[in-house]
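Regression test attached.
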Amino acid sequence: MSLTRRNFIKGVIAGGAAASSAAYLFRGGGSLLGQSSAPGSVERLLTLTVNGQARRVDVMKQETLAMTLRYKLGLTGTKLGCDRAECGACTVLIDDVPHYSCSVLTHMVRGRRIVTIEGLAGSGGGLHPVQQAVVDEQGFQCAFCLPGFVMATVGFLKANPTPTREELAHGISGNLCRCQDYDKILTSLMRGAEYLRRT
Amino acid sequence: MAETHIGRNYTPPDHVAKVTGRARYAEDFRAEGMLFTKLLLSPMPHARVRSIDTRAALAMPGVRAILTADDLPDLNGAERALTNEPLYAGEPILAVAAVDELTAAEAVERIQVDLEPLPFVVNALDSLRPDGPNPRLTGNAWGAPAPGGQGPGAPAPLETIKWTSEDFAVEAQGQLPMGRPLEEWSYGDLAAGFAGAALVLDETFVVQSTGHHPMETRSAMAYWQNGKLYIHASTQSVAQTRGNIARWVGIDPTQVMLICEYTGGGFGSKGGGAVSMSIPALLSRKANAPVMMRITREEESYIGRARTNMTGRARIGFARDGRITALDLFIVQDTGAYGPLGDHRSAGNAASLIYQPPAMRWRAVNVLTNTPPRSQQRSPGPMQANGIIEPVITKAAKQLGVDQVAIRRINAPEGKALFGPTLPNGRRNHVTSAFVKQALDRGAALFNWDERKARAGQRQGSKVRGVGVTVGPHGAGSIGWDAIMTIRPDGRLYVQSGVGNLGTHSVIDLARVAAQVLDMPWEKVEVIWGDTGKHLPWTCPSVGSQTTHAMTRANYAGAMDARRKLQEIAARDLGGSPDDYEIGGERVYRRGSPGRGLTYAQAARRAIELGGTYDGHELPGDINPMTRDSATSLAGLGLMGVAKDNHPRDGVTYSFVIGFAEVEVDVETGEVRLVDFLGVGDVGTVINPRSLLAQIKGGSCLGIAHAICQKSVVDPRYGVSLTDRFHYSKPLTILDIPARMQADALNLADPETPVGARGVGEPPVGAGYGAVLGAIADAIGVDVFRRAPVTADIILMSLENGRRMHEPLRAHV
């Protein structure tokens, strides 16, 4: 029996299971991505408010905020752990509310205030209280998930500045860590809540 | 040594970069003209590529190059990054480089690959059946390793082994068939051990496979400059990955510039890097432009490695007091599409260590399947041994009326305990030290074991609690690595670290030892890491919990060398013999007259003036060539401490973590809630307390996940993965653990290493796994499950029917 890959995939899809090879797609606009827009595509020059600054950026219609931040604005502190709203590594604040930036289209956030991990520290370079607490408690290990956890916490604390451990755990339960000392993560973020109340 | 650094918390120098987002992982780098690549993955679990038609793809604007297996160097039969005979669904066949990812993905879709489907098998036992399919054209199992081991890259022997239908007859009773093994060893009088036993149990258990799934996938970006390969990638072991990349790409190690300052986790899946690193490297050369390879989470679930699953059968004899009289262990290991791996051997060794059976037999077959490739995952082998054997110990304790802590204590290793098979020299290996009984005692007290035990088994509405305890072991240290450090005229100590920065902090912790020996304030210590262009010493791979032991030893040796040189320079300039001089306060000074001495900065300048051995122009003869090259590059910068760790060691270094768990099971919903958990480490001297306790808790959580939720499943009909996202593979979340977890360590020095420290990363995994499995059995019965994870459906079906209901011998359910 001879099968081409395409025919096989068609068969498998019909059977309800597929091995996807084209998982995330994007087409670049800026020089960083090496190609100008394809003819006829819907492209828009937007102004985004990121970390208090107005940033002009050329955005594809299907582009996610995570990709814009990472590949157009050079804000690589926002991590992609799954790109499918499962792990929370890409969490940023949009109008003070935590969102998975992998699952937000950049076109949807015009006029909204976006804050990333790079925007937390004060203008004088001092760490945000939650960041300082994470340093003081050595809250994370490999720290790839750290920006997402910190952004989720900062957002959660805006709504509930005096959480119990259980409440904060629920607040950040949309974030995965694989080094998995969740206990120490929670301790460091609870200390962050305490620091924040004192400022 | 004054206790100024060792055993104290400190803030590693990378932490501010981590919390501000400035820490750059592999996918955070950019290069001018950077292309992107997408991979074409095999949709079939086993096939042969008959032809590839790339014409339509290459004709697309923006497509720059296509890399196939024909472009890769031959690795002597070992796994390569691309293949013409895919052995699992998801194995990469080719890679396209294009100006952006969408173009690359579209190009992949336009490539016609003519695949000839081949027979496949996803369950190791099915491959052993009389008429079972082979996962490869050349066989289905790895043979025993050749005596004396195999050289790197040497092809391992592949065999075809089939068992008889008579062998499979016991399958109906849910027991593992035990046909002809391919490997075995034994010691002691097994028959006498069983004959004299008061109780003999014989149980089969299925330990599942799980993907490693570090938060950072194995993305990598590569470019070439002046004939050298520059690669930003993710590895657990910077110094040890350089040679692997060179081999995978087919160039000399000195032409590889690997940059990896931050690694987003590895857990064994990035031990010496990843073979996929060769894709952006070779594509970049072919396309003559930098290439970024972003590995998606789905791709990570195919190429990102997984734990070997095992079906194990343990027949164990017990005396009335719970002491084991004989242990007969049979393991069918599944190494997936590649291998061979040694988890099954480590499992046998670990079992003989933590249960100290006076007689033991270990038999195994190491089978391949057409499923994603396995690699060592955090506690490879010992953790699986805990899974197979702990339920039997738990059941025996119940039947004998012996306390669960007591039965583990009476069987626990102590001191220089023996383990493993009899060696060709007629002796058995022994460990450097074991304080397991003290750790059990400490843990039982801290956990209020007796109190919790008393409330176990009592129904509160639909809920019932249970407690469990397990000794998790793992090898914990190698010897013989090198260190380089320099005290420079600025008065600071620069320590070169070839360890990967995978989150354990051992990359920095090793410098704490150097600072301690040289009595250096921590703020004057610089650690140089994360870049093979930065003159790194020959360093252990950060796998097998060996780094803390190995590199504290090496840096102790290097610092002692620097200290001796300080004393020699002082004696030369100020008179007397080197032994008349002491160090302290960043000075080397005459004993009894602190005024007569040199500051470290002065000594560094003198070292440069004197040259020779003092500043690295003459080097010890026994250091590795890599260390020699690095030290030569650093020569003349200051007073150099450079040495190989030659400290003697009697025994093999092992560490132990004891897990204590209390769970609450809802017998109406099947939900398992972890009420409390404690891990107690017998892991030697504590170097970095906060990090060490994080290892115990984090490692335990990986074990807990294996007990209650995480798994990998491959569909047996199509051979495709059904758990290729977090949502399906179900790693632990913060809501799966109690609001507080506890950890502690004995902090008893290992006598066979100058710093006293052993490794800690791996032993807690088996401790968490076994303790939670034991606690569930304690709550709802020792015969409810014989596989993990213990999910609600397993619990409910078994409880409802009053007997085990799950098919015990299928790997993928």
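Expected vs. actual: identical. Chain A touches chain B through 80 residues (CB under 8 Å).
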